[in-house]
């Protein structure tokens, strides 16, 4: 019988975090799950640790493959996944013991495509954060939630409540573009896969394509995910080519929104997602002393200009950065 939930965990240089991550899966109050652990050619002991867990519990399935990045690793698992619902968990993070039970209970009750939840802020790289050791679970794991009385908001079209920014725990938003803090109906995802050319922000591109399918969903404020700052992660590497690949990836999504999305949905995505990313790339470019890299990024922006992607700039933030980016293109051409 197929599992109700398949959880996908890519692994690369995470040996000191991985046992805590996998223990958090083993500790789930919900038993009908499978976990696909993709060893992305990790040079440390991550693969061996995963094999030990698989020998201990056959709900863990381990795949060893040549290093090709987190997108390719997730795609490998997506091709294998047979759960009714899909979750993504990064191997340096962990989840609350009731996570799967809560999400599945809500999903079945409301018959939705996506259930979105939050992260615990004590484990986030924020100004007020207090990181926890890699070999220990956070104190809030001791919290016990009443499954039948979880507060949440039903949303008919999730893009109206989705954002690439963090609006805080008191807002009924799907917070950030990270794919990990959500559970997805597998049939809704269909053949959707991650862009293997992107090393960072690939999850925001993936989530943007999910939103194009106009999924309904539920948003809950429960802090069920525990995010750990790992300096070995892809998020902390690369500059020039990473920025170019980011522009290419989001350019493709932008074209798809202009072509197929309803106008209101397109404006929401451009305002909350595209211009958030473009301003981020611009600020990075302005802090780059290497003229060759600045020129390359300027060429990437110019391609967006030629394709008309910079024409739609809803909101003051977008219009402000549109002017700055156009000046940047002229001064670096």
Descriptive overview:
The protein has helices at 18-26, 46-56, 70-80, 99-110, 186-189, 202-212, 240-260, 263-286, 291-306, 316-331; strands spanning 5-11, 33-40, 60-65, 85-88, 94-95, 114-119, 152-155, 182-185, 217-226. With 333 residues, the protein is an alpha/beta fold. It folds into 2 domains: 5-234, Spore Coat Polysaccharide Biosynthesis Protein SpsA, Chain A (Alpha-Beta Complex), CATH 3.90.550.10; 238-331, no CATH class. Strands 1, 2, 3, 4, 5, 6, 7, 8 and 9 form a 9-stranded mixed beta sheet that branches. Strand 2, helix 2 and strand 3 form a beta-alpha-beta unit. The chain is globular. The termini are far apart. Residues 124-130 and 233-238 have low confidence and may be disordered.
Q: Report mean pLDDT, rounded to a whole number.
A: 91
Name of the CATH architecture of the largest domain: Alpha-Beta Complex
Query: Helical proportion?
Result: 40-55%
Multimer state = single chain
Principal-axis shape equals: globular
Count of DSSP E strands?
Answer: 9
> Which sequence of SSEs, written as H and E, runs from N to C?
EHEHEHEEHEEEHHEHHHH
Number of domains: 2
Spatial extent as radius of gyration:
20 Å
Write the layout of secondary structure elements.
Layout: E1 5-11, H1 18-26, E2 33-40, H2 46-56, E3 60-65, H3 70-80, E4 85-88, E5 94-95, H4 99-110, E6 114-119, E7 152-155, E8 182-185, H5 186-189, H6 202-212, E9 217-226, H7 240-260, H8 263-286, H9 291-306, H10 316-331
Parallel strand pairs: 1-2, 1-4, 2-3, 6-9
Antiparallel strand pairs: 4-8, 5-9, 6-8, 7-9
Helix pairs in contact: 6-7, 7-8, 7-9, 8-10, 9-10
